[in-house]
Specification:
By secondary structure, the chain is an alpha+beta fold. The protein has one domain: Gcn5-related N-acetyltransferase (GNAT) (Aminopeptidase, 3-Layer(aba) Sandwich). About 20% of the residues lie in helices and about 30% in strands. The chain is built from three helices and six strands, in the order αβββαβαββ. It has a six-stranded mixed β-sheet with strand order 1-2-3-4-6-5. Strand 3, helix 2 and strand 4 form a beta-alpha-beta unit. It is globular. Bound molecules: coenzyme A (COA).
């Protein structure tokens, strides 16, 4: 039987000096669009980052990287999948995740897809 959405989704929060500095929502149910170039079949190992947000005042100080890397180690063996927001491509690329673009280059509405390398 399929899991209800609430059981598939989890929120993690990151704190610095007792204040929340970032939040991430992950979903066991990964939706990889097959129209992206060279996408691997991640199957049940996939874990989608639905959103990852660092508090504005904390950006640029390594919180996003630390959170993404913590998630990766916490879910060893999973392939983390994220559709990058328009101006966040560089963030995911810096982490060394594999970049996939949509097969239709003429349509710039498609977000870039990033998948973490297998651990
Ligand atoms: C994108 C976001 C999560 C980055 O978090 P952060 O804590 O500022 O990032 P870090 O300080 O950990 O940066 C890690 C690396 O990514 C780079 N980077 C961060 N944001 C970047 C961006 N928007 N574009 C290009 N590179 C970026 C940093 O320069 C740094 O590189 P370095 O390690 O080589 O010096 C944060 O800006 C944010 O919450 N943005 C709004 C929501 C969003 O876009 N979330 C992404 C979901 S798709």
């Amino acid at each position: 039987m399929a899991q209800p959405v609430d059981e598939r989704r989890r929120v993690y929060r990151a704190y610095r000096d007792s204040s929340e500095v970032a939040r991430v929502l992950v979903d066991d149910d990964v939706g990889i669009n097959p129209d992206y170039n060279n996408v691997p079949d991640v199957g049940a190992s996939g874990l989608e980052i639905v959103f990852l947000e660092v508090h504005e005042a904390q950006r640029g100080s390594g919180v996003g990287r630390a959170l993404a890397e913590t998630l990766r180690w916490r879910h060893t063996g999973r392939r983390l999948v994220a559709y990058a927001k328009k101006d966040a491509d560089g963030f995911w690329a810096t982490l060394g995740w594999i970049r996939h673009v949509h097969a239709d280059p003429a349509n710039s509405d498609w977000l870039t897809l990033f998948i973490s390398p297998a651990l």
